[in-house]
Fold these 2 entries.
Entry 1:
Amino acid sequence: MRVLYFARFRQVIGRASDEIALPAGVTTAGALLDHLMARDERCAEAFSNRKIVRVAVDQNHAALDQSIVGAKEVAFFPPVTGG
């Protein structure tokens, strides 16, 4: 699975993406976030305030409880505004 990081998250983590094999039991975007935070200190720092984490699964906005089973891409980004 490809995991993408945008904006502030990319800056703190120090990379734009990861290619990972999902461990057993990681079936939602929130569980993926937990997994990333547990394995990587920079991810733990970037995602320490879950209230500002937004997610897209296969380029569709989703909630952290969204299933990622079968997904090819999950992206994490902070809230954005347009204008």
Entry 2:
Amino acid sequence: MSSIRVDHLRVVVYPNDHPPPHAHVLGPGWELRVELSDPPALMTIGGKAKTNDIGFALMAVADHLGHLRKFWSDLHD
């Protein structure tokens, strides 16, 4: 597993995950799956994420997209 912390969020790429390339953004009481596209695309929402949490999570993935794509590539290619 590879992860980064952005403020109160943890952004994780799991080694045994499935395509398409994506990251899991973990917040307090919620989890998002975000496709590592440009721009990042919201795939699923688990829990009760607020609209501003979703926006912040998408920005966090966008800001670290290169690192997250490298994590995915290193674990899955």
